[in-house]
Amino acid sequence: MMDRKAIGYEQYEAQIRDLYNQMIRVAYAKVNNKSDAQDAVQEAWVRILSKQDTLREQSKLNSWAKAITTNVAININRQTKRSQPSDRLADEQQDPDCDTSSEAELMMELSELLGLLDPKARTLLLYKFYYGFKDQEIADAMKVPVGTVKARIHRTKLLLRRLMDEQLHI
Q: Which positions fall inside the RNA polymerase sigma factor 70 region 4 type domain (predicted)?
């Protein structure tokens, strides 16, 4: 028999997973690219976590998260100004040294691996390696001691290495 804490945590985890899936659908509808959609959702999570104290009604979390995701996805579209897929294909065919497909595959694998992490761990890695925040800045943002941040980043890196190794051996 499971205790109440375990049941509560599982429900919370299921709600977060459901919200993540909703955010992916919203982002994908705006960018039409799986990698950019995942980037948009990750950026949205960072914004949500850093601004969570501004949410007045917890019941509006889903709507708020989807609105943030929409805005981030629109910004990604503005920044990338993607060419038409047929134009990209023609460019790749003209330039045989073009590594965009292997680079895209690598980015897709990395996004999938990050997607396997829990949101806290993913956020830590984004703060540290994508945005370049210092450990103390992350600790301040997440309201935890700097030693906790260092330990979590270390454990998450080890987990990522293990997941990469498992993926290579399959």
A: 108-158
